[in-house]
Amino acid sequence: MTDIALTNKFETPSRDEWAEQVKKGLKDAGFESLLRQTDDDLERGPFFSAKDLPETLTPQSRLKTPLLDERPWHMCTPARDPDIRFANKQVLADLKGGASALDITLSTDALKLTSRADLKRLLEGVWINLVPLRFNITSAPIETAQLIKSHRPLAESVVDLGLDPISLLLSGDASESFSLDDLLDGLPDNWTALCVNAAAIHDQGGTEAQELSVMAASAAHYWRQYGPKTKLSVRLAADRDGHLGIAKVRAARKIITRIAESFGVSTDIPIHSVSSLRMMQSIDPWTNLLRVMASGFGAVCGGADYITLRPFTDAPSDSPRLATPFGYRIARNMQLMMMEESHLGQVNDAAHGSYFHEALTQKIAEAAWTEFQAIETGGGIEGVIASGALQKSIAAAKSDRDTKNDPILGVTLHRAEETKPAKLREAAK
Questions:
Q1: 79 neighbors 87 (Cβ within 8 angstroms)
Q2: What is the DSSP letter of 348?
């Protein structure tokens, strides 16, 4: 049996020959029934070959971020419950269970810090010299950031304040963009003040190209305004389409690297992927487990440096949906399975060389770059927000998606006749 040759004994079929066989299999359905497009009208299948590869193939490897300790990426557990005591207890449980970083959301309807005592209570028992802290501040951003900066025990910690004036301006949470000059003065070297929250574009209804074009325009704006020495990070949404998610993270890496190089700044810009809020459903929330896992797969194989997966009970709502410890534990265990059992992080860029992923990465990057150029010629990111052009574009994308009315598992596709409700935690009175 050792003389069996497994290569060079079969003729390579041509694309036309492949297409002919597909037509036979489809019978009356037609080849067009297999075609799929993204929200940016980019063709994403069903067939890619070496001819679809971009001219240059560059691995899009994740960074060696601080305090990784041989992990491939940071499992970033969410801390956002308005009850500080519960949030602290949950953070400690997640860290003991395998998480390695904190994603702390501070907003009017979530966790709030009004004093350094609140911050101390939140971080009680956390080894802040070993755990990176990533903040997402949407309420009183400058005052809250100054409060965090004044907490002296954090001076040696790895901290990302997560400030994004552009995101707040676009969402209407700020009447005008604010200056960070005073805050940046004297900031510890291991701290980052700015995080381009492109995930907000996704959750408002934007497409992949819109999300990445705003990321690019915001980064360019901040480096112009505050100088090339200003460090920043990126926050992206991870949607339920894992393979599209892989391409989006890789495209984001290509774009932000190119812009950083043009400004002469470090290309070590961390990408933090957070599972999408808009994909989550309140009807049969158990099916959210599939969506969250698929989004995590895309973030991991796309090369995100920090990953936050939502508890499966999250869903868009006018009132906070407070997850139980069970919801947090399941979200944490999903990342543990991908890291420790499936070993998805062992390859630096799992999609490198894949016809499908390389082609889609390039298409998304080119579409986003075109929109980025339109933003720049339209007066920059602040200009297109002031004119309302960006908001109209995002609203149109959301309307188009609503019109498509794609099937949603457990809601409009294979909906169960009876579902068991998932428990939520009641807010403290």
A1: yes
A2: T
Residue ranges, the chain, pLDDT below 50: 175-176
Structure tokens at 87: 């949030």
pLDDT of the residue at 8 = 63
Kindly calculate the radius of gyration of the chain based on its CA atoms and give it in whole angstroms: 22
pLDDT value of position 429: 53
* pTM of structure: 0.93
Do 406 and 412 form a contact (C-beta atoms < 8 A)? no
In sign, the C-alpha dihedral spanning 320, 326, 329, 334 is negative
Question: 1 is written with which tokens?
Answer: 């049996």
Nearest to 94 by CA among 321, 320, 327: 327
Query: Do residues 166 and 218 touch, judged by C-beta distance below 8 A?
Result: yes
Tell me, what's the pLDDT at 23? Answer: 83
- Residue-range domains of the chain with CATH: 74-355 (3.20.20.240)
| DSSP-assigned states of every residue in 65-132 | -TT-TT-SSEEEEEE--S-HHHHHHHHHHHHHTT--EEEEEE-TTSB---SHHHHHHHTTT--TTTS-
What is the C-alpha to C-alpha distance for residues 93 and 90, in angstroms, rounded to an integer? 5
Which H or E element spans position 137? strand 133-137
273: left (phi over 0), alpha (psi -120 to 50) or beta: beta
Helix (H) or strand (E) holding 229, with range, is: none
Q: How far apart are the first and last CA of the chain?
A: 74
